[in-house]
């Protein structure tokens, strides 16, 4: 026999499915929501309800955008330089680079990094779409803004090989970034210096 109401148990189980949330954390979050003003729970429920219908991938950059947009505003903005493309692993890496206020190019989200142990190979990444963009937008520079990790370096090397026949400059963020630190967790000053001091790859 359960010692908790079914509705509370269901919420604990749902929260426990989130990455990094253990059973005790799930219980604390659920109890917090139960004790809080019902408005907070309703607001959270409404946000979750709209999550999948209100968000989509940009068909050009693969960044996350509002469902009513055709393409990312960071791509359609006439002030952005379409001939410079920062290659990032995940959509949230864009936020980290944008916070530096130093980058005026566009982005291309790979959708992950090459990691055989996780079953991610080159065929799962948006590399063919990148090649298409290079031709369509007459791209001059690709900035490899992948994490300074084994997977990030492996992916960067693979892309360099794949783009060897293109007449473009391939640069890498300067090594102001500590090894093993994910891009989205790097501080703005370090990331800004890495962006300004990018080097030929």
Could you list some keywords that capture this structure?
201 residues, alpha/beta, Helicase, Ruva Protein, domain 3, Dna Topoisomerase Vi A Subunit, Chain: A, domain 2, 2 domains, 5-stranded mixed beta sheet, two-stranded antiparallel sheet, 8 helices, 7 strands, 14% strand, elongated
Report on this structure.
The protein is an alpha/beta fold and 201 residues long. The chain has 2 domains: 6-53, Helicase, Ruva Protein, domain 3; 64-200, 3-Layer(aba) Sandwich (Dna Topoisomerase Vi A Subunit, Chain: A, domain 2), CATH 3.40.1360. The chain has 8 helices and 7 strands, in the order αααββαβαβαβαβαβ. The strands form 2 sheets. A 5-stranded mixed β-sheet has the order 4-3-5-6-7, with no helix packed on it. Strands 1-2 form a two-stranded antiparallel sheet. Strand 5 (141-144), helix 7 (150-162) and strand 6 form a beta-alpha-beta unit. The mean pLDDT is 88.
């Amino acid at each position: 026999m359960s010692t908790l109401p079914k509705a509370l148990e269901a919420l604990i189980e749902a929260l426990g499915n989130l990455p990094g949330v253990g059973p005790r954390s799930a219980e604390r979050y659920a109890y917090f929501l139960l004790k809080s003003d019902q408005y907070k729970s309703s607001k959270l429920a409404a946000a979750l309800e709209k999550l999948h219908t209100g968000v989509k991938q940009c068909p050009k950059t693969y960044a996350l955008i509002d469902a009513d947009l055709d393409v990312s505003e960071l791509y359609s903005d006439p002030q952005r330089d379409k001939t410079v493309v920062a290659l990032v692993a995940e959509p949230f890496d864009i936020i980290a680079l944008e916070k530096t206020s130093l980058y005026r190019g566009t982005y291309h989200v790979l959708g992950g990094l090459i990691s055989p142990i996780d079953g991610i190979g080159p065929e799962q990444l948006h590399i063919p779409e990148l090649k298409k963009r290079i031709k369509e937008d007459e791209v001059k520079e690709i900035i490899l803004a992948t994490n300074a990790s084994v997977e990030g370096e492996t992916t960067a090397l693979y892309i360099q090989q794949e783009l060897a026949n293109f007449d473009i400059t391939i640069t890498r963020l300067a090594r102001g970034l500590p090894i093993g630190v994910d891009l989205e967790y790097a501080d703005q000053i370090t990331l800004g210096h890495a962006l300004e001091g990018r080097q030929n790859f």
